[in-house]
Every structure is written in structure tokens, then in C-alpha cells.
Specification:
Strand order of the largest sheet: 1-2-3-4-5-6-7-8
CATH class: Alpha Beta
Number of strands: 8
Largest sheet: 8 strands, parallel, barrel
Order of helices and strands: EHEHEHEHEHEHHEHHEHH
Number of helices: 11
CATH superfamily: Divalent-metal-dependent TIM barrel enzymes
Helix content: 40-55%
Radius of gyration: 17 Å
Shape: globular
Structural class: alpha/beta
CATH architecture: Alpha-Beta Barrel
Number of domains: 1
CATH topology: TIM Barrel
Distance between the termini: 23 Å
Length: about 280
Amino acid sequence: MSSTAVNRRIGLAPLTALSVSPDRLVRLAADAGFDFVGLRVLAVTAEEPSYDLSPGSPLLADTLTALSETGLSVVDTEFLRIDADTGRDTWLPALEASQALGATRFTVAAGDEDLSRLTETLGTLVQDAAAYGVVPALEPISYRSVHSLPVAAAIARDTGARVLADPLHMARFHASGDELADIADRVDMVQLCDSPATAPTSVAGLVEESRAVRLAPGDGDQDLAQYLRPLPDGLPVSVEVPNTDEITRRGAADWIRHLHDTTTHLLDSTTTLTGGQTP
């Protein structure tokens, strides 16, 4: 990573280029200068590509080869939406794939509107995940049942999970940098993207923005620095910027290079000192 004032590892999140197979995503991320990748081991929708990264699969072997040859690592895997009926039959295969990839974090989101039951389910997942060397991280999402930092942190503390902070969702549910500072002890990775100041006015619009219309860091209107200052300098940053039009226009390799360039520029121009102080 080309870094001056900021000492952060930068990773590429899989949603950025979901149509790219995991083994190729690793190589494109390495070519662009990223330090690590996240990989999707569970498909979220029926429409998206589904990649078999289970132990023994040819794609897992190809992906491990790509990781070895590039020197990149997998920090996080995704993505489990915890609904009322989500159980071990869903998450155990994902944890097996996560372990095989060397991941230490597994991203989850809340689908269950019953937060008491959600907490119980997540607690069971956390216990199961420990055997695989993985810690689930709960991502508060603007259009899901957990859509605030304090609620996400409370559930994480009750279950032993972590919190994944995403500036798009934080902006959309109006979280402040101070709120993030209050839960910084539960956050061990932050995602990075940008967006316009004006939010979509419907749930469908929020979903579309999240999955296909994000902007590169620094190309939108958000004050991303407020979400970086409260966090330790060494906290990893995962760049999650799916943008269907940009991928179509530029191609995946060029879009990924652009994201690395804009991210390093943003981080190098935003001095973040331990303790959240600014010069």
C-alpha cells in the first residue's frame, strides 16, 4: 500500500466486483496494490453469482494458489443474513470455507425483526465460529432491523461478536463520528465508499444504492474523515464500492485500480492520529 501519514492495510471487498470469480479477484486486487481481500462464501440473492469455495473444490484450490502467488490474505468472508429460521445448516458450510481461506472475520446482517431471537441466534453462531478461528461481525444496515451503531454494539457485546462499520449505511441512518467513537472497542474493520448527500427515498432505492450505485472514496459528498478519525490508525479498511455502470464502462481491472488510487489518496490526505486527534 502506498501510504504516508496513514498506516492502514487496504483490502478489496467482494461486492465491489461480484461478477469476478474469487481467484481472479485476488489477482486483480494484487495488481492494483491492495493488501488483502474479502471473499463471499454465501450468496445473498438468487440473482448473484454463487461461488463454491468449499474445502476440496477446484475453485478453492485456484483461489488458494492465487493468494499464495500474490502474497495477499483473506481477512473476512461474507455474507449471512440472520433471519428467524437461520441455523447451523446455513452457516457451518460457510465457516468451513472461511477457515479454508484463512479468514478471521465473517460478516452478518440482521434480517430477523425479533432482536431478542436475533441475539440468541448470533450468540450460537459466535460459539460455533470459534472452532473455526472466525469471529462474526455484525454490520448495521440502513434497511435492515439493526440500523444503528448503538444497537449493533449492544448485540455484539452480548454475543461476543464484532461490528463492521460501513459509511454508506452510517450516512443513511445518520450516525455520527462520536457514535462510532463510543463503540470503537467493538470495531476491528471499516468499509469505505462514498455516496451523494441525498439519500434514496425508498427501501428499494437504498438496496439498489448499496448493491450497485456506490461511489469511489472522495467522489461523493460524505465526510468520510469523521468515520476514520475515531478508529486506530492500524485498523484495516475494506473498500466496498459496487457500481454497475462503472464496471461496465471501465472493466473490473480498471475500476479496481481506480478504487485503490482514490482510497490511498483519501487516506493520505486525511491525517488520523491515534485517539482521534487531528492536527
